[in-house]
Every structure is written in structure tokens, then in C-alpha cells.
Amino acid sequence: MHNLKEIRKDFDAFEKKMQKRSVDINFTKLKDLDLKNREFIQKKEALEKEKKDISKSKDSSLFSKSKEISSSIDKILEKQKIIKIDLEKILSNIPNIPHSDVPFGSSENDNVQIEKYGKIPRFDFKPRSHYELGENLKMLDFDLASKTTGSRFVFVKDKLAFLERALSNFMLDTHTLKNGYQEISPPLLASENSMFGTGQLPKFENDQFEVKLDVGMDRKFLIPTAEVILTNIVKNKILDLKSLPMRLVASTPCFRKEAGSYGKDTKGMIRQHQFYKVEMVSIVEQKKCLEELERMTNCATNILDLLELPYRKMILCSSDMGFSAEKTYDIEVWLPSEDKYREISSCSSCSTFQSVRMKTRYKDQKNEILYAGTLNGSGLAIGRTLIAILENYQKKDGSITIPKILRPYMNNLEKISLN
RNA sequence: GGAGAGAUGGCUGAGCGGUUGAAAGCACCGGUCUUGAAAACCGGCAAAGGGGCAACUCUUUCCUGGGUUCGAAUCCCAGUCUCUCCGCCA
Questions:
Q1: What ipTM is given for this predicted complex?
Q2: Is the CB of A215 under 7 A from strand B?
Q3: Looking at the C1' of nucleotide B71, which residue has the nearest alpha carbon?
Q4: Strand B reaches within 7 A of the A51 CB
Q5: How far: A56 CA to B19 C1' (Å)?
Q6: How far apart are alpha carbons A188 and A253 in whole angstroms?
Q7: Cα separation of A147 and A141, whole Å?
């Protein structure tokens, strides 16, 4: 969310920056509502002052006047409430402003490749897709999942389940032992307010799984990413400068409705309602956002380097970035069966966008209170890493070689083949 | 599920109808002292919002939402969360 005070300073500049996002926002209405809102505040405060003076004077002859003032205040408050709701509604649906580094674009086709890494494997046979490989090994079972649950779920079995678990441990170990992240095992449900804080609500409610709890009225949602719960750890806080940067990592299941992607990636486990992901979150001084983004992205790509998987690094264009992001790098891993790169990690700086929503601040050296910068990135999506290993490490006979770095995590198993 | 207790500033914690935005301590910032540091001492120190070029000033906020009152951190009602005891249980 944007700080209205900042927007007000230069409405036109704000409008101009927002054009890069290609979203339609009623700026005139926003400006108008802000103006009216401030008028009401002034009227209200004048009356409040008057009332306060009466009560301080303890002059009983003025007490009835005070009652009258109270009712006028109520009337103003009522009108102001409507304006405030409108204002909030507009404001909370405005995305973050893209950083000047971000290329302008209208679709994912405008994302810009920064660099390619690793060697694309050559096969002397037609490489199979991960679902063919997994089903042949009898270790991926999509039919069983539709039987027990429904579409876009999968059973991962046997050695592939082992591999999945090994990946989680390997990634967590790397981030905690080498990259300075603190491991967290968080709740998988988030409150409505937490979902608002990171920007999933109110605009993207359709993508979220809401969970009905019997007691209480508070709404709860299954986390679509651990980003939600990790970032909201610092909600409503004024942090000590010494506690920054704060780096957190968690490996959790993630739940997404994938509304609006009907017919997309219906085969295989590229796009599921539930998947494991190792997520990194950093809370930093606002001026250190971009620096931290580079660091975080390197932490993500480092995992691919260690797994010896070929990938490329992309910078997302203005229209392909997430709602809360000011700048995003996508890491795409090579998938031989599709003969192309597919997203396996997304690292974003959200500047102060989320911290304004969450009210996360810190005191700098001068004791000034500033909004914190927040960043999040996958390090990596486990399901998709599993896919990448299956496809890139496949052999002609349908067996899978296990990447060397993972073997210590898998009882020194070297290869997965049909039992 | 049953019975109690509580929620106050960055933190700990007093206050239980009238300059209380809130004692005290810790933390933090500035200063004195010191070769430097620590200790000690002195001073400063809540946030959000509005107005003003500024100095500054006003309003709101003691979990949330209602209510009583001229006036609420303080009284009443509802909700949320936390803790203790009992029961149940992974």
C-alpha cells in the first residue's frame, strides 16, 4: 500500500509512475476523496477541541452545549466514514510502483533475460516428461489423487517422496548454514489481516483457500506461500536497527486455487493446488532493498548451481510483476521435455509496500521512524525442482540419476529406477 | 469442554472517573568524566493523523468494537487474544 501523504505531495508524478503498471485507477476520485477526507478531519478536530475545553473548564453551564457538539461530531463522523472506506478501497487495490530498473512491458513476453547458466543436457533419445517418468516408476500417481481429492493434486511415492524430502532438507541446510537464514516452522493458516499485509487480500481473494473454523468470526486462509506468514512476523512492530537485516526461511506446503489458469499445465505437477516450497524472507532497511534482492537471488540460484541444473535469470517486466513487488527476478529451470525454461523461483523486493500495509517500521541511527523493506523469494519451489531433476537427470531406461549433492541426504542412493 | 486471571509506550511495569500521553525501571540518543571503553552523573526520548514555508500547533490512541458521563486507561456490555487450574487428547 502506498502512503497517501507521499502520493499527495505529487499526485501527477504518482499517476505517471503507475502508468507503467497498466492498471486503471481512478486518480481523480482518489484526489477528491483525500481532499474531502481532510476537510472532515479539520471540522471534526475543531469541534473536539471545543468539547475538550468545556470538559476541562468543569463549567456545568456549558455541559449541555457539549452534548450538542457531540451529536455534530457524530454526524461528521458518519459522513467521513463513507469517504474513508472508499479511500481505503482504492488505495488497497493499487499495486506497487515498479522500480526504474524494471523494463516496461505488457505481458510475460516482455520479460528480459539477464543470463543463462549451466549446460543444457543432450539426449540420444527423446526425453520424457516428468509425469511419464514418474508414472512409469510408479512413484507419481495423479489418478490416485483425483480419486481421493480431485484434480491438480498428486501422490508422490517411494523414492520420489524420499527425494522430495531430501530436497527440502538440502535447501534448508544451505540457507541456514551458508546463507544466514533462520529456520522457521510456521503455522500454515494465516488470518485475514496477515493476508492483507502481504497483499493477497483484498484483490486476490479468488486465488486463496479459505478455511472454515467452527468457532469465532475471524477468517482464516491456507497460506499460498510461506511469504505471508514469515513476513507478517514483523507486523505492527517498530524494529530495532540491530535486528536488521532479518532473514527467515521455511519449507512449507503452499495452497493455491489457481483460478483463471483452467486448461494451463493440466498435465503433470507443474501447477498444483498444493505444493512444497522453501521460502526466504528478508526484512531490511528500506535503502537496502535492491542490494538484498541481489543477495537473495544468488541464494536461490546457488541451489540450482549445486544441483547442477541449467537455468536462466530473468527480470520481470512491469506488467508481469506481482502486486506487491517493485522489482522481481524469476529463475527459470530448463525442462527438456518442453524444450524450454520454466519458472522455479521468483525473488522480489516489495520496497515499503508491504510494511505500510503491515505497519512495520524501524528506528534508524538518527532515531527516525521509517518503514522497513521486505523481500521474498523461493529457494526453491520443491515440486518444480523435483520435476527438473526427473527430466534433466533421466536415462534412456527411465531411471533417474540422483544429483551428487543430494546423495548424502538420501542414504547415498545414486539412482532411482523401477522396483 | 468447565473454572479463574489478564491485555498500558521499543521492552518490563504503576495507575482503576478530571492537565494521565500516562509514574518507575530497562533499552535508545546527546553530554560530563576517561588515553579509550565501562561505570557513575546530567539531559532527551511514544505513535498516527490534520494545519503551517517554518518555529510550532491541534486531534486521536492505554487489545478491538459498542455504551454510560460535561469528562474514561480507569465504570458497563460484546468480541479477540494470552496465561493458570481441571477434564480430554495427538
A1: 0.86
A2: yes
A3: A55
A4: yes
A5: 8
A6: 8
A7: 10
